[in-house]
Amino acid sequence: LALMCLGAALVFAVGGLQGQLKRFGQCHLSAVAVSAALALQFVAVLCELIHLMAFATDGKGMRWRHGRLPLDFWSDTLQNLSELVAVVVVLSVGSGWTLVDGTFREMKKVGAAAAGVAGFQFLMEMLGRRYQEDFSSFHDHDHWPGKLLMLLRCACCGAVAVGTKRALKKVGGTNDASASTFLKRFFCAACVW
Fold first, then answer.
1. Residue 95 in contact with residue 163, Cβ under 8 Å?
2. CA 139 → CA 25, 60, 75, 77, 142, distances in Å?
3. Where does the chain have alpha helices with state H?
4. Close Cβ partners of 49 (under 8 Å, ≥ 6 residues apart)
5. pLDDT tens by residue, the chain, 193 residues
């Protein structure tokens, strides 16, 4: 079911990109990045599904230690990459940083956010492997790497809240109602995500 929903969302996202391309002759970088994150998540779920089907059949699944293509590992890796792209876009847009035309200072912030989240996720992936049993336990909240990953997500939510509040103050001074409405809706969607 998750794979079908992600597939439908991916088709919708690609259609939106095609619409942007047809209407404006280009696609916004944030729309391309979110679509890429969606595609990575789709492949991650597909890898996990194949791993779980193999596990249900033979009790081993798709892992290196069983001499097979490690689809379980690739599922976690692609999911982390998808989350990294989504976090960077959400933080960038929510904080009012532009993704293309920003100043060098703003781009340094985006790069720092990406590097920090990527490094933390990689470390949690490696540390979470110590607790691995039959299924990947990277998202298992019974051990501290999984709990720290949840704490990172809460911190990102807080950063989006603070950044969006600052961006709304900037937009409020320009009397741009559409930008203000977008940021308020974006904030709600980003926090739910």
1. yes
2. 40, 20, 12, 12, 9
3. 2-24, 29-58, 71-94, 104-128, 144-172, 177-192
4. 3
5. 888 888 888 888 888 888 888 988 888 777 788 889 889 999 999 998 998 898 889 888 887 777 788 888 888 888 888 888 888 887 777 776 665 555 566 777 778 888 888 888 888 877 776 766 544 444 556 678 878 888 887 888 888 788 777 777 777 766 667 777 777 777 776 766 6
